[in-house]
Amino acid sequence: MVAAIRLTQTGGPDVLKLEPIEQANPGPGEVWLDQDAIGVNYLDITQRNGSVPIPLPSGLGLEGAGRVTVIGADVTNVAPGDRVAYILGPLGSYASGRLYPADRLVKLPDDISSDDAATILFKGITAHYLLHSTYPVGPGTVVLLYGVAGALGQIMAPWAKALGAFVIGVVSREASVARAKAAGCDEVLVFDANSLPAEVARLTDGKKAHVVYDGIGKPTFTASLDSLRTRGTLVSFGASGGAPDPVAVGTLNAKGSLFLTRPGLGAHASDLEEYHERAQAVLSAVATGIIKPSAWKSFSLADAAAAHAAIEGGQSAGAVLLKP
Questions:
Q1: What is the distance between the alpha carbons of residues 99 and 93, in angstroms, rounded to a whole number?
Q2: At 265, is the secondary structure helix, strand, or coil?
Q3: 139 and 76 in one domain?
Q4: For 31-42, what is each residue's pLDDT tens digit?
Q5: Inter-CA distances, 230 with 178, 208, 209, 216, Å
Q6: Cut 0.85: pTM above it
Q7: CATH (domain of 181)
Q8: CATH (domain of 72)
Q9: Do 195 and 85 fall within a single domain?
Q10: For labelling alongside 320, which of 53, 113, 208, 292 has CA 20 to 30 A away?
């Protein structure tokens, strides 16, 4: 039986319901996938709780990995039996099987499992655009990175180090310091809004950071601005702590001609050529050992609500998977 998570209203994790669905025949340019592993991302939670609106009723999920079983007309890039993974495209990865556009499928090498792919691809492509496009990190770049103990931070920190950066990690509690250091951070700070800018200055001989990657939002925004050197860049790419307050343009000048950007994955992975280039960069980084897929925990598809609750409750320490 094919089953999928559906929601008819936004709210807490309990709005996620597992329902049987019919296997459909793929149309032109589509395939049917039997899925082995599904990545859970914070964007899924914001869509479920209504912070990021989606049309309802709806499926959920933007990342999965599995095997092609049936192809539609005009599909030439994959064949039945191919192991593949994907991100973005139509919502609905929380399913044991689904239709999906063939041109967004990424073929997996033999040494990357479906679990590894569902652990790394969405977050790896996010890390790639943040480190290579939003701000081109290179030798000598001083990076201030929040959430280093989390799934994305565990990818960004070693990748930034491989690019030659000096990485200052920020965590929310003392218990996460060791995990952040193991990811390759040169220094790790436990977040305190009042002391963070001074601590960053101390660690950089008063110069502060070239770039701050802030996925938290409202509680950290001012401290992030104050942790930047002249002409530094604040990358506000998430809001797990709530949306930041508006900032007056003049504030950026007053704090040292700062740059502020709010990038999103869609603008960096919707174009097919760009998407596939980034996906291959992620797979190459895994192959060379720069980043290592590591899931914190796998939940059954039927327990998707428990997976969401674990992430929202701060229990997770890394990537979370659903298994059909």
A1: 10
A2: coil
A3: no
A4: 999 999 999 999
A5: 31, 9, 9, 22
A6: yes
A7: 3.40.50.720
A8: 3.90.180.10
A9: no
A10: 53
